[in-house]
């Protein structure tokens, strides 16, 4: 599979940051860790990976703007392009020695997602998508799962951490979903959750209260793998709201319906 120049730039940045994360993962007990808020950790590993992605992308495409989790907004001279980057998605897993985390890089052109890369350096799984060009894991073309019954479906979710809010809503949503599906999973990296939907490993996923950098690349992966994504109410402002439901067309519709039920009966 021949990759485009822009995907190559993103892959190179993600893999270089991945090598840094893999090294730091091996010495996780020696890393400096600080709290950004209750339950919300950041470490030297996040910052080192972000520095690498920032340097690589800025060198390859000078002037593009950035939105990055740790640096925030970096303005550019080019008002057409913006990188949206999470240098370590799954910090809590990482700091606990759980090898489920990723680097997420997306590119917007004129406000539209045009390229996305999600990389799990421990599994060496590289997910790429370009608008109109399909989604891939390493060199394999991806397609969302074909299951259409919720009762056969395994659904991913995110559980709001301490300080996040949304706890009450989440419990209502979980109870509704649990009552209808074959299984529920909590992976701990939103970017990988969406990549797993694209790969057909999970049939659907929902989470609320995320940020643009958690979901930008993954949303493109889902769409390019033939899937559907929206806010729980059906809107398309997922980058602003951080609220996401995804799956194939049928599971997506069914999940939206299930999530909006008031409270399931026992
Ligand atoms: C977190 C992960 C996690 C999700 C959290 C996010 P971080 O990102 O994506 O799966 O449930 O809400 O904040 O902080 O590890 O980059
Ligand atoms: Ca974080
Ligand atoms: Ca994240
Ligand atoms: Ca992060």
TrEMBL record:
The keyword Magnesium applies. InterPro entries: IMPase, Inositol_monoP_metal-BS, Inositol_monophosphatase-like, Inositol_monophosphatase_CS, Inositol_monophosphatase_SuhB. The keyword Hydrolase applies. Gene3D superfamilies: 3.40.190.80, Fructose-1,6-Bisphosphatase, subunit A, domain 1. It catalyses: a myo-inositol phosphate + H2O = myo-inositol + phosphate. CDD domains: IMPase. Keywords: Hydrolase, Magnesium, Metal-binding. Its cofactor is Mg(2+). It holds the Pfam family Inositol_P. GO terms for molecular function: inositol monophosphate phosphatase activity. Belongs to the inositol monophosphatase superfamily. This is Inositol-1-monophosphatase.
């Amino acid at each position: 599979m021949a990759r485009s120049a822009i995907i190559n730039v993103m892959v190179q940045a993600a893999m270089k940051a991945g090598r840094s994360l893999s090294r730091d993962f091996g010495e996780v007990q020696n890393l400096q860790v600080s709290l950004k808020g209750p339950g919300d950790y950041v470490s030297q590993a996040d910052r080192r990976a972000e520095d690498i992605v920032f340097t690589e992308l800025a060198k390859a495409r000078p002037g593009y703007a950035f939105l990055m989790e740790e640096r925030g907004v970096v303005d550019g001279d080019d008002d057409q392009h913006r990188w949206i980057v999470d240098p370590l998605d799954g910090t809590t897993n990482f700091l606990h020695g759980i090898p489920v985390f990723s680097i997420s890089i997306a590119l917007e052109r004129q406000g539209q997602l045009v390229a996305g890369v999600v990389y799990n350096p421990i599994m060496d799984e590289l997910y790429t998508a370009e608008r109109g060009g399909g989604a891939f894991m390493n060199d394999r073309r991806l397609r969302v799962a074909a299951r259409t019954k919720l009762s056969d479906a395994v659904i991913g979710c995110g559980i709001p951490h301490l300080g996040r809010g949304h706890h009450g809503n989440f419990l209502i949503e979980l109870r509704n979903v649990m009552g209808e599906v074959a299984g529920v999973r909590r992976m701990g990296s939103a970017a990988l959750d969406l990549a797993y939907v694209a790969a057909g490993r999970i049939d659907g996923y929902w989470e609320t209260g995320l940020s643009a950098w958690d979901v930008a690349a993954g949303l493109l992966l889902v769409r390019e793998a033939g899937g559907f994504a929206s806010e729980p109410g059906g809107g398309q402002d997922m980058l602003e709201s951080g609220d996401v439901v995804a799956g194939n067309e049928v599971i997506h519709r069914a999940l939206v319906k299930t999530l909006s039920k008031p409270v399931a009966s026992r």
